[in-house]
Specification:
Number of domains: 2
Order of helices and strands: EHEHEHEHEHEHEHHHEEEEEHEEHHE
Number of helices: 12
Shape: globular
Radius of gyration: 20 Å
Strand content: 15-25%
Strand order of the largest sheet: 14-13-12-11-7-10-9-8-15
Helix content: 25-40%
Largest sheet: 9 strands, mixed
Number of strands: 15
CATH topology of the largest domain: Dihydrodipicolinate Reductase, domain 2
Oligomer: single chain
């Protein structure tokens, strides 16, 4: 029996849509990219000649053949446009961050539930290689007391042509990169007891947060998450320290660079990194503390869309990222801002 085809409309065709969504959608045979909302018609048709490029959202909302809409528009439009898509009876994937306010997230979740529609958020970094490999190895570390994750960049000059550098509603790296780090931590450990955050706009002419450090409190364990825009030598992307050993990984997952370079998940070697970026695993045993390099699992952003398809055709199947889990990320972002403004720890 042939598989059901899910017709997809893509809202926007910036970096997120062109690099992180369209190539993955095109790599799942049961998805068909039928429409793109954009003014970049020539660029899109050169890559996806069967897609229709439109400039009016209403065209997509009124089309009964479109099953799923992917909202990759600027963060300040995540709530309003997603709401319109759900009201039109469409399943929706929202690029992270889910929305700007926790109250907006709750409203959209309730709307999707009432409409019996799938609503998911593209927290693709759950399928980064270092994060997947840590999940494989974390049982060897014993009781974990410290978990760290950093998403650093070296961009010392502010680019005021980018909306992420100037749009107060959901702009800045706390929403952009912090949402990834918070989602990974919550997926591993659940919600914390308290949060403390230090946020700053450090670079000359910076209008929004370009540095943050967040501490999440879990009884005796601490989770430290951070990002800097002026980090020429990046910190470990992920590390965990337990009473039986530690896991430390440098180097970002290669999938983004591969996608930017034109590779797709269907190409041989996709998601496989150079061994120079292998993690170091240190484990205490009867022979003392031993260290070894761990070959990373291949990263797998495609898994999100593979699991999304299963959830769309079988409503008993879990979504790859629940809207509820993504809402908790927004809640912690709001609490981090509150903590920074008050200069104190905030208890949940």
């Amino acid at each position: 029996m042939s598989q059901k085809i899910i017709n997809v409309g893509l809202l926007g065709f910036g970096l997120s849509a062109s690099v992180f969504h369209a190539p993955l959608i095109n790599s799942v045979s049961s998805f068909k990219l039928t429409h793109v909302l954009s003014r970049q018609k020539d660029k899109i048709l050169a890559l996806y000649p069967d897609a229709k490029v439109v400039t009016d959202l209403e065209v997509l909302l009124a089309n009964p053949e479109i099953d799923l809409l992917i909202n990759t528009l600027p963060n300040e439009l995540h709530y309003s446009i997603t709401k319109r898509c759900l009201e039109a009876g469409k399943h929706v994937v929202v690029e992270k961050p889910f929305v700007v306010k926790f109250s907006q997230a709750r409203e959209l979740i309730e709307l999707a539930e009432n409409k019996k529609l799938c609503l998911s958020v593209y927290h693709n970094r759950r399928w980064d290689n270092g994060y997947l490999t840590l999940q494989q190895e974390i049982g060897k570390l014993g009781r974990v007391f410290l978990y760290e994750a950093y998403f650093d960049r070296y961009r010392p000059e502010v680019n005021l042509q980018k909306w992420r550098e100037t749009t107060a509603a959901g702009g800045g790296i706390l929403y952009d990169l912090g949402s990834h780090l918070l989602d990974q931590a919550l997926n591993l450990f659940g919600m914390p007891e308290a949060v403390f955050a230090d946020l700053e706009a450090q670079r000359t002419d910076a209008q929004l947060t370009d540095y943050f450090q967040i501490i999440l409190y879990y009884q005796k364990m601490r989770v430290v998450l951070g990002s800097s825009s002026v980090m020429a030598q990046a910190r470990p992307v992920i590390a965990a320290y337990g009473d039986k050993g530690s896991y430390v990984k440098h180097g970002l997952d290669p999938q983004e660079d591969m996608l930017r370079g034109g590779m797709t998940p269907l190409d041989a070697g996709f998601g496989v990194e150079d061994e120079i970026s292998n993690a170091q695993l240190s484990v205490n045993s009867e022979h003392g503390l031993t260290r070894q390099l761990i070959v990373s699992q291949a990263g797998n952003y495609l898994y999100f869309y593979q699991q999304l398809y299963r959830a769309l055709v079988d409503r008993n199947h879990e979504l790859p990222v629940s809207a509820g889990s993504a809402a908790n990320v927004i809640r912690l972002i709001e609490l981090s801002i509150q903590s920074n403004d008050l200069g104190q720890k905030i208890y949940l």
